[in-house]
Amino acid sequence: MAMDRSRAWELLKEYNKEPFHLRHGVTVEHVMGWYARELGYGDEAAFWSLVGLLHDVDFEQWPEEHCVKCQELLKGAGAEERLIRAVACHGWGHCVDIKPEHEMEKVLFAADELTGLIGAAALMRPSKSTKDMELKSLKKKFKDKKFAAGCSRDVIAQGAELLGWELDKLLELTLRAMQEEEDAIEEALG
Description:
The protein has 190 residues and is mostly helical. The protein has one domain. It is built from nine helices and no strands. Helix 1 packs parallel to helix 3 and helix 2 (19-38) packs across helix 6 (103-123). It is globular, with a radius of gyration of 15 Å.
């Protein structure tokens, strides 16, 4: 059976119970779909979104085997090889040696940590929303190493470099993705 959104969601919920992890998966799902459309891969948007949804499928239960265990889980669920590779390679240089090659893999590598930083910054705002967040505010949070310290600035910067983008471009596009997808993310989690 081919992996579709409902099967992917069931799989994510099978191995993840924490609302934080489910929210992160759905956020990255929507950001990846947005990027697919923005970068001219609209016909691949559903696939990019699935990769985003499943990228941390193993993290909650097997953090020490992150990006390794997911390969086994996804293979067992009948996922195609390119989905398994795309999910696993976002741990390149940290837990796996699979380097992101395709633009989609590079976007996931670059945007994953950044969505966490943007989400944390949104929670600090009176609106609790990304919609009224400005790039300069995000850049300030990015520079403050104590803020959302678990979000690796090095990985984010390395991701921008992999894509051949200035860091500001990555910050701006990912913020815009989260702003434009915020309502859909809330609805999906509803």
